[in-house]
């Protein structure tokens, strides 16, 4: 199994996607030196840079997981073991429950435990450790103990050829659990700043990394140490006719739909949620009260997806302002397919159709 997973990871690393991206996400692979203390980085390089900073600035920080010692299947941990030593960056057995359990203990002793689950699809053996141990550690001890130094990194979502065991988006499972935070970046700059915030946050966090964007999303990233606030959504495009909410890789698809909608005279406001739990209801509510309409898009199946929670909350808060039912453009209620992935995914055209249908309701 290990060799199979490694081969899959290498093929993912060399993937050249046909999926469109915004002008800020041009396909490149190498970091290019830019001016004013920034570098043009892809997403995996930005994560690698964040991990270097985390280990360099805190001697209590440790990185561990399957194959992280040689850089990992997506190369996010490249160079860490050589620089910081095998006692701080080390491989673990293929046992996700053991990885997270070890991380809980390490964090409970006052360390910064940065655990990697090789694919989010394989996080489920660690589900009990995350939801029954990490999430409840502080509560059950009456705040005498905690494992707030635990960050669980894991690649999630579609990748173009992953099928049902390497393409899932399980974020909604963890949004149901009080005591942990769930964070998903959309771009390299966001990934670096949010990951450093997660590592230094006093709560256990699951940090989902959109694997589709590891080498495709490129932007100028500050070289220095910086953090971005958690639980603050960002309005990345202003509009007045409809509000669109998403996270991770789906933001680039939604942005394309917004551009096409603009050609037809529809003004879309686009919001990146970034932190799913606890999520920024106020920013979304303010936008919906302005536009009167809401569309949510994510790769996970529509039933029980986190879009349903957003929809319910906004209906409670903005019922009198809504001019149309809340729309959701999501994955299908099926196992993630292989050859039929294009039919499963929430594409630009699906989102555009939903925008027009909602605006013309």
TrEMBL record:
| Annotated source species | Cicer arietinum (Chickpea)
* Gene3D superfamilies (alphabetical): 3.40.50.920, 3.40.50.970
Give the EC number(s) listed in the UniProt record: 1.2.4.4
- Subunit annotation: Heterotetramer of alpha and beta chains.
Localization annotation: Mitochondrion matrix
MF (Gene Ontology): branched-chain 2-oxo acid dehydrogenase activity
Gene Ontology terms: biological process: branched-chain amino acid catabolic process; response to nutrient
Lineage at the top is: Eukaryota, Viridiplantae, Streptophyta, Embryophyta, Tracheophyta
Alphabetically list the UniProt keywords: Mitochondrion, Oxidoreductase, Transit peptide
- Reactions listed under catalytic activity: N(6)-[(R)-lipoyl]-L-lysyl-[protein] + 3-methyl-2-oxobutanoate + H(+) = N(6)-[(R)-S(8)-2-methylpropanoyldihydrolipoyl]-L-lysyl-[protein] + CO2
Q: Locate the Transketolase-like pyrimidine-binding domain: which residues?
A: 41-216
Question: Can you name this protein?
Answer: 3-methyl-2-oxobutanoate dehydrogenase (2-methylpropanoyl-transferring)
Which cofactors does this protein require? thiamine diphosphate
SMART domains for the chain: Transket_pyr
Chief location of this protein?
Answer: mitochondrion
Transmembrane domains' residue ranges: none
GO CC, alphabetical: mitochondrial matrix
């Amino acid at each position: 199994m290990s060799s199979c997973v490694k081969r899959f990871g290498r093929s993912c690393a060399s993937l050249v996607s046909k999926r469109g991206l915004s002008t800020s996400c041009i396909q490149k692979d190498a970091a290019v030196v830019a001016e004013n203390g920034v570098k043009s980085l892809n997403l995996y390089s930005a994560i690698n840079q964040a991990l270097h900073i985390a280990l360099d600035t805190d001697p209590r920080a440790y990185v561990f997981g399957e194959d992280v010692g040689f850089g990992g299947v997506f190369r996010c941990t490249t160079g860490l073991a050589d620089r910081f030593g095998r006692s701080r960056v080390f491989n673990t057995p293929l046992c996700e429950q053991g990885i997270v359990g070890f991380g809980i203990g390490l964090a409970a002793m006052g360390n910064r435990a940065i655990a990697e689950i090789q694919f989010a699809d394989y996080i489920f053996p660690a589900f009990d450790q995350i939801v029954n141990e990490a999430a409840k550690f502080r509560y059950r001890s009456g705040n005498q103990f905690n494992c707030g130094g635990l960050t669980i990194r894991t690649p999630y979502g579609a990748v173009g050829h992953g099928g049902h065991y390497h393409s899932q988006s399980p974020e909604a499972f963890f949004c149901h659990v009080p005591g942990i935070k769930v964070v998903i970046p959309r771009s390299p700059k966001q990934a670096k700043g949010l990951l450093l915030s997660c590592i230094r946050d006093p709560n256990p966090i699951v940090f989902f990394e959109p694997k589709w964007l590891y080498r495709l999303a490129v932007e100028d990233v500050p070289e220095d140490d910086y953090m971005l606030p958690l639980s603050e959504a960002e309005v990345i495009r202003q509009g007045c006719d409809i509000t669109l909410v998403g996270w991770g890789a789906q933001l680039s698809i939604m942005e394309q739909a917004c551009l096409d909608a603009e050609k037809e005279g529809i003004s879309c406001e686009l919001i990146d949620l970034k932190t799913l739990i606890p999520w920024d209801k106020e920013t979304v509510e303010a936008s919906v009260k302005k536009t009167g309409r809401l569309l949510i898009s994510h790769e996970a199946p529509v039933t029980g997806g986190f879009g349903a929670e957003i929809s319910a909350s906004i209906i409670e808060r903005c019922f009198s302002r809504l001019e149309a039912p809340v729309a959701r453009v999501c994955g299908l209620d099926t196992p993630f397919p292989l050859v039929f992935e294009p039919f499963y995914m929430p594409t630009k055209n699906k989102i555009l159709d939903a925008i027009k249908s909602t605006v013309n309701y």
